[in-house]
Design a protein that fits this description.
Layout (H helix, E strand, L loop, with lengths): L1 E7 L5 H8 L7 E7 L5 H13 L3 H6 L6 H21 L3 E6 L4 H12 L3 E6 L3 H5 L4 H5 L7 E5 L5
Parallel strand pairs: 1-2, 1-4, 2-3, 4-5
């Protein structure tokens, strides 16, 4: 059985589930899901810069309305449960947890615990972070010891 650690930042859509569950054809895959709830002020600034870079000025203005802290954790728990149920409904084993500390430390720990074969980072585009190779996938490649695949989500956050 193939084990993938799937790192996400929001609930998986049906298109996302189909995307990740078909990567290995008919092989059985177990997913260990890590969900990073929205961050604090620094993340908000980077998201706003990404919105401006994409010409989505209305989204940049609304970044202040995005839940943070405890509210984001509660929403994160719901998003994680929805994602796990969707993966299971697609016929795969799936377990997961929220990231409460540093994302890359949590990722490395889960890769080791699950003896994972790969990491899939599935997020919206984060152009500023990706340009400077500060996104999760770029940084994880140097920390986890397994292949890291960067995919873009099929919907906006």
């Amino acid at each position: 059985m193939f084990t993938s650690v799937l790192m996400i930042e929001k609930a998986l859509t049906s298109a996302d589930v189909e995307f990740v569950t078909t990567l290995h054809g008919d092989d059985a895959v177990t997913f260990q899901v890590l969900l990073q709830p929205r961050g604090e002020q620094a993340d908000r600034l980077l998201r706003a810069i990404d919105d401006v870079a994409l010409g989505e000025l209305d989204d940049a203005v609304r970044e202040g309305e995005t839940p943070e802290g405890e509210e984001a954790m509660t929403m994160g728990e719901r998003a994680l449960e929805v994602s796990l149920q969707a993966l299971r409904a697609a016929g795969h084993r799936a377990e997961g947890r929220l990231i409460e500390d540093h994302p890359l430390d949590a990722l490395r720990t889960m890769v080791q615990e699950a003896e994972a074969d790969e990491v899939i980072v599935l997020t919206d585009p984060h152009y500023v972070e990706e340009f400077f190779h500060r996104d999760w996938a770029s940084r994880a490649r140097h920390k986890v010891g397994v292949p890291v695949l960067k995919l873009f989500s099929h919907s906006k956050a």
